[in-house]
Amino acid sequence: MRSFLNFLVNIIIFLLISVGSFLVAWRFIEEDVILYFTQVPIVSADFELNLIEMEETAEFDWDVVDSLDATYWLNYINIPDDDVHPIGELLIPSIDARLPIFHGVGEPNITIGVGTMKPEFVMGEGNITLASHWDPNPGVRFGGLHLVEEGDYLILRDSNFLYIYETIIYDTIITRYQFYITEYVEGKIYLTLFTCTPDGVNRLMVRGEFVEKVAIEDLEAAVAAEEAAMAAESGVLADLGRLDVEIIIDVVETLEETEIPFPTTDVALAVGGSLVLGLIVVRFSNRGRRD
């Protein structure tokens, strides 16, 4: 009977230590796992066609943007590729964000990417307003939107061009009923991004003003140069004016990355380390009881 009780105690200790240590390790790998499972195929050649196909079914409801719990992404692991129709991409280099843009803010649009708040969507015109879920991980969706600073680039991409905006309003809290942020401002071309605050009560807004429209093929020619400085001096990027050449070239290189790999090594270390720690604690616990 005593040996059975010792065995039972060992199992309980092992489970408590292993599960507890894995939950601690999970905080370090959660972001990469979420990004892997919620990534979607992005085919730039289909952007315009997807916009046309989604015009009749897209939903535009301000109140749908809210906070989610940490396991929301489990609902979207098995989304069929045929149900995913991005109409463009949003890139925020300063926070390493690359998000597919979808027409409308219904689910799963703002869980696996960003959604348009208005039916009108023409890059480089008007006031494009994009919404996405907040996430406790700063690298997932708009979880890092509060880290964007004045002067940071906000970049839209269609099949052929990058539309570059420069941040003029950042880390600004508004109420969930301040609909004016979606409205057109005469004489201005804006890109407005917003998500909910962590408590889900208010909204966090970032706004950029349009700076440049640049052909991707011109930038790809610059990337082919040995150094960004050489590309700028050669005249390929001469028309970019005050834009940071190296950042824009980094963006173009990012567009070539088609898939986020599964963090196999990190997950294996988290699981293996948790099991080993559990065994070590059980061993020392047994030694203490014998002594």
Keywords summarizing the entry:
291 residues, Sortase, Chain: A
Describe it for me?
This protein is an alpha+beta fold. 35% of the residues lie in helices and 20% in strands. The protein has helices at residues 2-38, 47-54, 109-112, 216-223, 228-234, 245-255, 264-290, and strands at residues 88-92, 97-102, 114-116, 127-131, 153-157, 161-174, 190-196, 203-215. It has an eight-stranded mixed barrel. Helix 1 (2-38) runs antiparallel to helix 7 (264-290) and helix 4 (216-223) packs across helix 6 (245-255). The protein is elongated. The two termini are 20 Å apart.
Brief account:
This protein is α+β, with helices and mostly antiparallel strands and 291 residues long. Helices cover 35% and strands 20% of the residues.
What gross morphology would you assign? elongated
Residues in helix, %: 25-40%
CATH architecture of the largest domain: Beta Barrel
Approximate strand percentage: 15-25%
Poorly predicted regions are none
- Which sheet architecture does the biggest sheet show? 8 strands, mixed, barrel
CATH class of the largest domain: Mainly Beta
Structural class: alpha+beta
Query: Residue-averaged pLDDT, rounded?
Result: 84
Number of strands: 8
